[in-house]
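Exercise: predict the fold of this chain.
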Amino acid sequence: QVHLEESGGGSVQSGASLRLSCAVSGRSLNRYHMGWFRQAPGKEREFVASLNWSENDGYYSDSVKGRFTISRDSSKNTMYLQMNNLKPEDTAVYSCAAKRTFPPGQQYDVWGQGTQVTVSS
C-alpha cells in the first residue's frame, strides 16, 4: 500500500503558475498508476492528469491539456503537477491518487488529503 501527501497549493492571480507536489511512500511504485484530480465547490470530482509511475508518461483532461504537465521524480518518490496559465475555473481542491496497474480495471483506491488552489481574476 502507498501513502500520498500533497503540497504546493495556494492563491494566485489568473495567468500565474503553481507546482503541486505529491510525496509518495510505499513499495513497488512501478506497479501503480498515479493521478491528479480536483473538486470545485458544488461540483463533482474530475480527472485532471495521470501517469504510469514506471513510464513517466502523461494523460490529460481536455480542460488542462497544454497548460498543465504531470511528471514524477523517482529519486525523490514525488509526483508533480506543473500548472501554467491558471484560470479562475481551475480553482478547486487538488488531490493525488494511486491505483494498481494490474489486474486491469482497478479503481483509484489511495488518496491524499488534498490541497487548495484558488485562482482570482
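Check your answer against the key: The chain is about 0% helix and 50% strand.
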